[in-house]
Amino acid sequence: MSGYDIHLENFEGPLDLLLHLIKKNEMDISDIPIAAITAQYLGILDAMKTLNLDIAGEFLLMAATLLHIKSKMLLPRSYEDEAEEEEEDPRAELVRRLLEYQKYKDVSETLEAGPMLGRDLFARAAPEPEVLEEAETGFVAVGLFDLLAALRDVLEEKPEELVHEVNLEQLSVTDRINAILTELQGKESVAFLDLFSDGIRRSEVIVTFLALLELVKMRMVRFMQNTHHGTIWLFPSVPIDETEELEVGEDSLGYT
Amino acid sequence: MDIHDLIPLAEALIFAADGPIKAERMAEALDVPLADIREAIEALEVDYAERPRGFFLQDVAGGYQLRTRPEYADYLRKLGRSRPFRFSRPALESLAIIAYRQPVTRSEIEYLRGVDSGSVLKTLLEKRLVRILGKKDVPGKPMIYGTTREFLELFGLPDLSSLPTLSEFSELAPDTETEALMESLPLLVEGEENGRQETE
């Protein structure tokens, strides 16, 4: 039992555990005694089971791989195969993976040990975003994560409605698209948050957001911001004609 | 413009920038040849290195930034300026794999690590250390990932080619870290280990 005093959660995964076993037993990685290591590996998994610990699927997959390699090594090599070409050692792929994993494990430790901004080195704090927003230039395109973060902020302000009534109210993405276009008429830009005015309901937030995504997809508008985490602005990418009603059917958008 | 006038000007730009500032951008702003800016930056670098200053000029993420000297880290941390940036081992491993193997798919990361890496990848994306580069043109069109400018800034790297070289192994080095970790934790066998830990 004492040979298996190992907490599985201390290991990142089966590769990490195998590397540990190889080092602990001072095994030669280029010639791993597969029977011995398989026995130890399975022993650890057994010990975990008796402690009623959940074993991640990856550890079980590796157990199967080890047993597969072991069985392959027990099989006598056929003479025909040998004549054709040198058969690869069944352990070769595993060894490659172990060495490769060790490389990244080591380099990640090197990176962690080096000076890190915000931990060992400090830079002057960036100016307040408000100051930056006054600048006319320097807009950057808004990425997916910024957009989703902005949506999350809006949604957090709107608590989930605990109502059990069935509302027959029709929320239409098309209507919202046209409302947003009306909002943009004659303006250079509209702030993302201004589209979610106070009192708007959670379901309306979603419909508005879907409408915005549709507009981006149709290349009618663009999202821009000054800095990461900065205010997101909506810019029309084409001049919006006052009389123009967008002719999109709800069906064509795929919302019902 | 005379180089002696340019040095303090370049310094002013670097000081006022809200992140690493590229030499090209400085040359454009000051309307001087790029070579002159490089000369001024070099002079500043030497100046900061020779004089007893609290900060130095770091060549990072393709630009230049003033950063405090690492030996003052303890004092600066006391100011509470630091967001505690603790990396978990899975996060660090995945980040290293992405940094060296980019563009890389999630399944490639998982094959290398031998474990599911979805949640770690999500954290790295949220921390903006990793970004989606696009989709790979293979069946299923998996996303491909790469590191960001923020990654270079965090580790103080001028560019990706300055990542530490990966060492090649034929044999394994002694596993000191894991041994230490195992000893410091209360294992299935209780006793001596705990005692030793308390006296440390």
Helix content range of chain A: 40-55%
- Determine the mean pLDDT of chain B: 82
Counted beta strands of chain A: 4
Task: Return the CATH topology of the largest domain in chain A.
Answer: Arc Repressor Mutant, subunit A
Would you tell me the structural class of the helices and strands of chain A? mainly alpha
Mean pLDDT over all positions of chain A: 77
Strand order of the largest sheet of chain B: 3-5-4
The major beta sheet of chain B can be summarized as:
3 strands, antiparallel
Topology pattern of chain A, helix = H, strand = E: HHHHHHEHHEHEEH
Give the overall silhouette of chain B: elongated
Task: Please provide a written account of the structure.
The complex is a heterodimer of chains A (256) and B (200). Chain A is mainly alpha-helical and 256 residues long. Chain A folds into two domains: 2-113, no CATH class; 129-253, Orthogonal Bundle (Arc Repressor Mutant, subunit A), CATH 1.10.10.580. Chain A has ten helices and four strands, in the order ααααααβααβαββα. In chain A, strands 1-3-4-2 form a four-stranded antiparallel β-sheet, covered by helices on one side. In chain A, strand 3 (221-225) and strand 4 form a beta hairpin. Chain A is elongated. Chain A starts with 13 loop residues before the first helix and ends with a helix. Chain B has 200 residues and is α+β, with helices and mostly antiparallel strands. In chain B, the strands form two sheets. A three-stranded antiparallel β-sheet of chain B has the order 3-5-4. A two-stranded antiparallel ribbon of chain B has the order 1-2. Chain B is elongated, with a radius of gyration of 22 Å. Chain B is 50% helix and 12% strand. Chain B contains ten helices and five strands. Chain B folds into two domains: 3-74, Winged helix-like DNA-binding domain superfamily/Winged helix DNA-binding domain (Arc Repressor Mutant, subunit A, Orthogonal Bundle), CATH 1.10.10; 85-194, Winged helix-like DNA-binding domain superfamily/Winged helix DNA-binding domain (Arc Repressor Mutant, subunit A), CATH 1.10.10. Chain B has helices at residues 3-16, 23-30, 34-50, 73-78, 89-101, 106-113, 118-126, 149-155, 176-184, 192-199, and strands spanning 55-60, 63-68, 104-105, 130-135, 143-147. Classes of the chains: A mainly alpha (256), B alpha+beta (200).
